[in-house]
Write a structure and sequence with these properties.
This protein has 8 helices and 10 strands. The chain has 2 domains: 12-89 and 232-255, no CATH class; 96-205, Nucleotidyltransferase, domain 5 (2-Layer Sandwich). The chain is globular, with a radius of gyration of 21 Å. Helix content is 36%, strand content 17%. Helix 3 (69-88) packs across helix 6 (217-229) and helix 5 packs across helix 6. The protein has 259 residues and is α+β, with helices and mostly antiparallel strands.
């Protein structure tokens, strides 16, 4: 879909020089799909897309691929970026929601817990029996968590959280159920198994990659949310459609980590 990057209008005239002229704001712009911006043979791109959809890391293809390691990494990065782009546009959640936070990163010597070096703190929201949102946050603080809750949930929702003090004010935004644990098990019938199950899914999926570059972690996280939210669909077909319908110019801001 050829969308004007200035006004967002989706209708444009095609000019003789190959560019487009927006029918809304009359701005002339170039448009190249993500798929066409990758300078590889169509057969090689389809093979890479199939392997990416199956979750095969790039480094495992080093002896059986005619494509260079740099080209494979770029293809994978763009495939993750289109997934992350779509997840950023997902509407705020409402209804019964589970909220939780965790850290991603390998085991290291030194301080443990939320202040451990080299760890990325991630906040997540699961709509019960539905979709997930997850995003890196700068610090394990109430202010950082509240900013994400305000941006990604609607007032009046029913929130399920643990007993961290930062969630105490959720009653001012909607109903709030606190899950207390004893020896790692929730007390009572209420749980936050949905978001905890997603954390397990995400960490197990990332394990074969043997480490993730920090500057691209948001792309991996966007990919994981996309896979989870489209778990009943053909992943290869979904990603191919996105790479053909999104422009590389539109995708560029997503490639850069925020913050």
């Amino acid at each position: 879909m050829r969308r004007c990057l200035k006004c967002g209008h989706r209708r444009a005239w095609r000019l003789a020089d190959g560019r487009f002229k927006c029918q809304g704001c009359r701005v002339r712009f170039s448009w190249t799909s993500v798929w066409d911006s990758i300078r590889l043979e169509p057969r090689a791109k389809r093979q890479l897309l199939q392997l990416f959809s199956l979750g095969v890391p790039s480094y495992r293809q080093r002896f059986r691929s005619a494509v260079s390691a740099k080209a494979r990494e770029r293809f994978y990065r763009l495939a993750r970026a289109v997934c992350a782009y779509v997840e950023q546009l997902r509407e705020p959640f409402e209804g019964a929601l589970e909220c939780d936070e965790t850290t991603f990163g390998g085991a290291r010597h030194g301080k443990r817990g939320w202040g451990a070096a080299g760890k990325i703190i991630v906040f997540g929201i699961v709509k019960r029996n539905g979709e997930v949102k997850a995003m890196p946050i700068q610090a394990h603080s109430g202010a950082a968590v509240w900013q994400e809750i305000i941006e990604h949930t609607k007032p009046g929702s029913l929130y399920y959280t643990d007993d961290w003090q930062a969630y105490a004010s959720l009653r001012t935004r909607g109903e709030h159920v606190v899950i207390r644990k004893e020896r790692g098990r929730p007390k009572g019938r209420d749980t936050i198994n949905g978001i905890e199950g997603f954390w397990s899914y995400a960490k197990n999926w990332l394990y074969p990659y043997r480490g993730v570059p920090t500057k691209y972690f948001h792309l991996y996280l966007g990919e994981l949310c996309f896979r989870f939210n489209h778990r009943e669909r053909d992943m290869q077909r979904e990603i191919l459609h996105l790479m053909r319908s999104l422009s590389i110019q539109e995708l560029t801001p997503t490639l850069v980590r925020k913050g």
